[in-house]
Amino acid sequence: MKGIIYKGIGGFYYVRNADGEEVECKARGKFRKDRVIPMIGDEVEVDVKNGKGSIVSIETRRTRLVRPPVANIDIVVIVAAAKSPDPNAALIDRMLVNAESNGIEPIVCINKTDLADASELEAIYKGAGYKTVSVSAETGGGVDELKSLIRGRIAAFAGVSGVGKSSLLTLITGNSLETGAVSEKISRGRHTTRHVELFPTEGGGYVLDTPGFSSVEIEDIPLEMIEQCFPEIAEASGGCRFRGCAHIGEPDCAVKALVAEKKIAQSRYCSYKELYELRKGKKEWK
Known about the structure:
It is found in: Cytoplasm. The protein is about 25% helix and about 25% strand.
């Protein structure tokens, strides 16, 4: 049987195949010997006997996240709110950098558009070259468009507390995902232990919540890759006078010129500059 690990608890892995059949599995000893730990999202081959499964092989992972530990994510849906809480551009940009540096396609989703206009925020990220979608979990507006963007894919939802990820996930799956919902109390200091789980969606896809995704391990990103994580800055850099321009203090910088002309958002440039200087201050790992 071939399938995907959609949940793992206490050393047991739960695998679902394309027909929706599910089986509880253990990993064979060879994985421990090779120091390979199965991950949620892994595509696996399972040997099933008497209703119980044994994972015999793991397909090569397309993508891999460390926090949370999930494999083969196709899309990260970065959820912000138009209001309550007010959008935090710096945090959105950090999550975009996290997606870009892990080779995962990001989508910016602006929720709570029933409370405030999202056109300015949407323009910033569309201008940066990202797919964006404005939705309201309260009214259902825009949710069908979001569904179409993630149909048939494994989509991770990321965002700070209170932006409405849980409500969106419930609308997308048709089920209340209490086990997969981030407690809004986490941001206020209360620790909550929970497992990561993939939930099936229409069209053969899966969704999951990703607590911890906003934490960027900046030392893991090469300095020269910071620019590549800001597509509009990377594109503009070809017009700079100096090759290898950092877009900080160099003369004749095309990026800074576009910022001055408001063709690159000031908030995006500030995020780039902050992350670049933060990374530059870190020692290279040997």
